[in-house]
Amino acid sequence: MKRIQSELFAPYRFLGVVTGDVAPSIRSTFVAKKSALSVLCPIDNVIMQYNGKKLRAIGMSEPLSDKVSAVASSSTSVFAAHGTNITSLAFCRDIKDSIDLGAKIKIMTLIGTQLIAVDISSGIHVIDTSEGGLQMSLLMEGSDDFEITAICHPSTYLNKIVVGSSTGRMKIINFRTGKVIHEFQRSFDSRITIIEQTTALDVVVVGLENGEVMLFNVKMDKIITSFRHDAKITNVAFRDDGESTMVTADKNGTMAVWDLEKQELIGKITGIHSDEINCLYFVPGEPIMLSASLDNSLRLWIFDSADGMPRELVRLEGHSKPCASIKFVGKDHVLSAGKDGSIRKYDVSSLTMRQKLGTVGQGVKLNKEVQNVAEMAFGWQREAAWNNVFCRQVNDTKITTWQTRNNTSGAFTLEHDRFKKKVDFIDANATALCVSPCGNFVFIGYSTGHIDQFNAQSGRHVHSFTASTTVKKSKKSKNPRKGPTKTNGDIHNDTPAADSPITSLSVDQRGKELMSTDAQGHILFWSLSTKAINAKMFKKDVRLGICAPCPSNSLVALVAIAENGKESVILVDTVCHRVARAFETVGNKVNAMTFSSDGKWLLVADNDSYIRVFDVATSQLIDVLLFSKPCISMSYNETGQYLATVHEGERAVYTWANKVLFVAHINIRAHPADYLPSWSMISTEEGGTCDIDDDEDDLTTLMDQDIKAMKELQIDENLVTFSGLPSSRWANLPDLALIKERNKPTDAVKKIKQAPFFLSASATLDGFEFETENIGDEMDGDSRYITSKRNLLELESSFTTLLRNAKTRDHLLDAFKTLQNMSLSAIDFQIRTLNPKTIPIFFRMLLEVLKTKTNFELVQAYAATATKIHRTIMWNASEGASEHEELTEVLEEMAQVQMESWNEMENLFVENMAVVQWIKNALL
């Protein structure tokens, strides 16, 4: 799916898609003299690489400019056809080379170093890959009467391929010369869908659209035997470990195992793959087979049973049908429900962590159609105790239960007895769902206007809300129940809560009040303690739709639909029972809504493939996300890092990174209410194509630039500003000598008793001679210490020279920048080499920097270090010396300027501490 980054969100990665619509390619690589198998699955405009042993994701290619239509691979390179281009990717990662063929490719295979590509016009392109790049070597124009549908390279047939057509005819073509070598006289009566080499020479297998599978002798132009399926043949594979077994697959997902010696069917595998199988592959020399299907699954099979049938070894799958709903159930975990009825859990931070909680209605009726999940409600408070996820299905009154702690489905469903026993409610269905903040109760609204309350732990019906309920304290019954009830709700006094279908339900964060809306525009607030109506709101000539409660305050977003069909979003304050905000420009039809984790933003997805981001405080539009398909569900995680979206017709869960949390500075600005981005406004260089999980994103460079600019920024000249350097660059500077002394080794270096076996040698003009230690020049520890101390006193470094030659204020500031860019040990060395004449200049430099009110912490660290190192010189200086008078003058002025700067900071500290203490003690 095509998507782009916006001002506030950037594409992060997609989850839940295992394989796409294009057949995967199997590649064998050699690592440390061992063969490793990998599966390359094209997904949209990227190629996912899986380990062939455990089907774990191990890599992903760079995003390509268009959707991948075919893929082929060798041990070192992967070739992907996308649009009219073929791209070579080194080790399925980086783009190495690309070539434009001028036509879209539908079939591609690699024979040695020659890449054979067939375009949509049945033209054959031969590309040479031997020199590391892609060079066109031959082009054969296609014809209208021979549409190529299958291609195969027979073993031992040098530079020749067998091609099949849609009319059932076959040809042998020499792809070196571009000539047709032979055209078979025998013509099949159906479209050829697959041609594969068998384990025997000169024999290929031909699969047809009418379900026939034929073993065909290419040399003799003769059919050896034939088999038959009930549907179109999509793939064929042969065992080569000594067993004469053939496996065929059709478009219904059925696999048949055949015994070629007896020419009979061993058995069929049905109900595993729910869609067309586009890949079957046997691992060379092993009884292990890989199958890939359009139902978004990969499976490994092993043939180790006595009856010759395989058993499933490893499975990797996602939703077989598009996703319908999504919900974050933790910081990094997201729950998705698909139209296939399955509930799955993914980890946003990992591509390999995925779990299936189960399938809706699984095990109840085998012939029953699986219902589509329309809405999910989640409560984290009782996750460790009982079911905490509840799903509402389309056109069904049952609510299924799930648990995210054990990743299992619940033992019961929630359904009132009225829908089981009354014929009047045969067409009823659940239309709204929510969970109380405590996680103990589930509230369900129906198309009949009823609202029911169930216990989440037991699944027992608790209460049915009715409009005639009055405030009344109920007394406990003196006669307790003698046993469990056989009914789930009273069906006699069953007055609905509204005269129209319930459209949304929401419970406030205190768990004291339930808000319900109906299709006639009524908003009712129910007390959960008395079951009575606390307040009513009514919006005339307006139908109310879905709602989205805010996780951090009392606001609830509601969709209001006018008589003319125009939709708007209103924010209802559930505490004051009034409308707080209204957003008129939200698109033609609102599909989904959600709040950010902090409640500052409201995200609204419409049917025109836009997601609008509104600032709740100012009611302004601050961002618009653009997609190629409409978003039908979305969810924000609790920490505000990620946004997850689900789109119409897509099986993937797309995640987005909140750039406000990852980028140093984001310019959030208001847009006009009718602002809408378009694809023409965004160039390809800015990421107009799908950017899925790009590790080398340009955001890193932009982030570094923003951080550097913020560090160099001084907001006001009157404010004290720090340097922005890490504390390791200055905090330990005054105690650096003590740290070095403490880190010295405790034991002296010992001489080696015996010489090493290999003596070190150095090259000379006469050859090589052994290096000898100059033992005679060794000095004892005391003399070495005195010599190094004398050299230190007589040394003048480049920084000292720079200080001595500084005449103006700018020269002193430049000297400080030079010192600032040095390492910690280098700064300590430069301060130690200061002589009595340059110490006053050094403190003058610190004074000038302190007057600018920048680098405040560096000045303190440098001044403390210089005072500690040169304290003897500063205290024992003679009274009449010019250096002493200059140093005294500088230190007095520096003390005054520092006190002024520190008083400003101290006042701010005291003020902030007072405010914090008041907030702690205030009764809010």
Automatic annotation (TrEMBL):
Ranges for region Disordered: 465-503
Domain WDR36/Utp21 C-terminal: 714-920
Domain of life: Eukaryota
WD repeat copies, ranges: 226-268, 270-301, 583-624
Record carries keyword RNA-binding: no
Domain WDR36/Utp21 N-terminal span(s) in chain numbering: 39-304
Pfam families (UniProt xref): Beta-prop_WDR36-Utp21_1st (PF25171), Beta-prop_WDR36-Utp21_2nd (PF25168), Utp21 (PF04192)
PROSITE patterns the record matches: WD_REPEATS_1 (PS00678), WD_REPEATS_2 (PS50082), WD_REPEATS_REGION (PS50294)
InterPro entries from the UniProt entry: WD40/YVTN_repeat-like_dom_sf, WD40_repeat_CS, WD40_repeat_dom_sf, WD40_rpt, WDR36-Utp21_N, WDR36/Utp21_C
Amino acid composition bias (Basic residues), ranges on this chain: 472-484
Any one Gene Ontology cellular component term annotated for this protein: Pwp2p-containing subcomplex of 90S preribosome
Alphabetic keyword roster: Repeat, WD repeat
GO biological process, one term: rRNA processing
The name this protein goes by in its record: WD_REPEATS_REGION domain-containing protein
